[in-house]
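Review box. Two proteins, two foldings.
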Amino acid sequence: MQNTNDVLAMDRRHAWHPYASVTEPLPVYDVVSASGVRLTLADGRELVDGMASWWCAVHGYNHPALNRAAEAQLGKMAHVMFGGITHEPAARLCARLAELAPGDLNRVFLCDSGSVSVEVAMKMAMQYMAARGDSRRCRFLTVRRGYHGDTFHAMSVCDPVNGMHSLFAGALPKQYFAPEPSVPFGGEWNEAELAPLVDLLEQKGDDICAMILEPVVQGAGGMRFYHPEYLRRLRDICDRAGILLIFDEIATGFGRSGEFWGADHAGVAPDIMCVGKAITGGYMALGATIATDHVAETICSADPGLFMHGPTFMGNPLACAVANASLDLLESDPWRPRVAAIESQMRRELSPCAELPHVADVRVLGAIGVIELDRPVVMAEIQRQFVERGVWVRPFGKLVYVMPPYVMEQNDLSLLTSAMCDVVRDDNGIRQGA
């Protein structure tokens, strides 16, 4: 086994980390194992993980049931192409996702990741309109402050100003952006909220094939929680305009917001839904795009008579087997009261931060806790402070937030929330960013 100095040296020389520079790299930490809600570093320190590995390890790490599923499937086959072949893990997963999905979403297209599921959804919407003889309708309507992934069409529906992809603006397809929902979750609904979106549809509706947005929670675009009534009204608006409605449930799916799907807060269903992240409990990369029978049958009713997409690792048996085991855990474990308890505790323990002068807002929904600052953090400094306090929290921009595994106990969650409050109160990782 290589010692940690060798690992870090190899990493510095050859690894290019996400959203990071190779000339001015941020510090990285050598993780040698993970179990439960803890990451173990090479030097023996343990960090309570508040990020669930970018929101996907909802059952924690090294879970016996997920390990067993991976090991059992590995003994049969790790991968086989999905073109012209099926297998029990994929067929079962598709059936279960269709059963769990809201409304009549019945057709499951398995893919590699959340970003790819968005690409697939957008291609479905364009091919659907082409099949109806409306090939001109190939643009998308969305809201500002959204985030849908880092691949090309996914980038085109991320916020063009405050998002992470402005560098590519000249090469991206041009989409239509309505103002972001402004009525907060739990606030008083205001019907005027939708007027700009309706106006935009009246002006540009002949070009638009679908509306795409994250239901109730805008994730990496700002960790904002908005009123579910927006989705109920939006369903009617899209129906009247004759466009499809796409929900990006990649971050919100599988219980993160306190309901199984973000859409469940509003009691509505989209025409197409994107899922990923927690689908395998953080074990394997996997995504899915789920469409109604109507969408699928319309696409296949016209030339070329099939949907034009097919990832190499689509329906990977190993990932599907672990995804089924993860769904088993969600069905058998009391995830809902656990998420409710996490929400209650974070509300109680993060609320004092709202009084700090450089804190703009504190908000909690389900297993999502956010402290929004009035200026960006200094990443290298604030990351070091969290590690020194024995927690793993990865802020971005002005947001110090956590999305812990659902299995986190009270003491570990208190360690997270107290570290967040201490670091924000201390101000060292924030003041330099002014």
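Next protein.
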Amino acid sequence: MATLEMQRVRASAESQSLVEISGVRQVYNLGDSTDLVVLDDVSLSMREGEIVGLLGRSGSGKSTLLRVISGLSRPTSGDVRWRGRPVSGPVEGVAMVFQSFALFPWLTVLENVEIGLEALGVAADERRRRALNAIDLIGLDGFESAYPKELSGGMRQRVGFARALVVHPRLMLMDEPFSALDVLTAETLRTDLIDLWIEGRLPIKSILMVTHNIEEAVLMCDRILILSSNPGRIAAQIKVDLVHPRNRLDPAFRQLVDDIYARMTQRSAAERIDKRAGDGFPGTGINMVLSEISTNILSGLMEALAAPPFNGKADLPVLAATLQMEGDELFRNFETLQLLRFAEMAEGDVQLSESGRRFVESDVDARKHLFAEHLVAYVPLAALVRRVLDERPSHRAPFTRFSEELEDHMSEENADATLRAVISWGRYAELFGYDEQSGQFNLENPA
């Protein structure tokens, strides 16, 4: 009977719109008339009674979208409405749970939970009552007087949830709330949260959560939005019809996870025509933003893929579970191998290329030689660094020679990470050297 009543409540709530976003575009100016487009033509809606997941790789603008919805950021263009009204500032009725616990270390658990109510001007007695109720609901009864340093990571995140719930928001935004926790703690907290949601005990109407974990999204969400990267656009919307509690071993669950991996590794028509176009990285040519991944990790991934039971080809969900990697980390690592033409990702699978197999079968010197060939051929920035060093009589060039050029097309942080990636790869391949003390690239001692 309770279940039937819940279904009626949820069905009634479906007609009540919370968030409506239409044609949202978010652009940041990097200077010198260079723009970084983070979100482009994003439209979505959220209604009461649903948990919606935002899935996407780094650079897809997931966190930016949360800030736009909450009213903390104003989009460059487009329309954002909260319960039918235009959003022009921070939205009352929206609470946020962050990846980092973001607790005040000098305040007790109770004081941390109360602080949001204090900012709203709630009377002291009412603050105390609501805070204690939230603490009890989230499973921290007895720890009201503890300080954050005395709590485990999972308990600190529970305080974060209590602090968000205590204001009784209509919409709770969660930005990778479980990613800083160990596997078992994260699983416990997810389960507890879903149990409270199903039982109708959470004082919220809907949840919008950002996650890199595909299984987490399928486990928790009623609907999943997949964002493409650079710029972020909604590439797909998937309805999850599985009943709670959901079983990870259920064939329907596994099939849905496989389908999402396939969607997230699907190449566009342009990329299928031009194998050099993108490989998941923003920018083109020397302006491609690179991930700083060590050659030890890249080598280890190729060796793991080449070994049984994969023997050169693997289903990404199975590989993610074997390597204990979440989706974003897995994609980032294998996109780098794909960029270097040592592997290929498509339709939810990853496969070693002939060059990747040759790399695994080679000795140390042959591996370095092969890596150098691919670095020059497929990473334009590495080729530019080597060419500049070859052409200069001193065979030296400062870090700023390349960083300043990159900063015309990307953020300073991305420019630094991109150059650091090329430095690491170039050193390993003995293509060039880099002196940290002087900040100079060189050919004197590439090793």
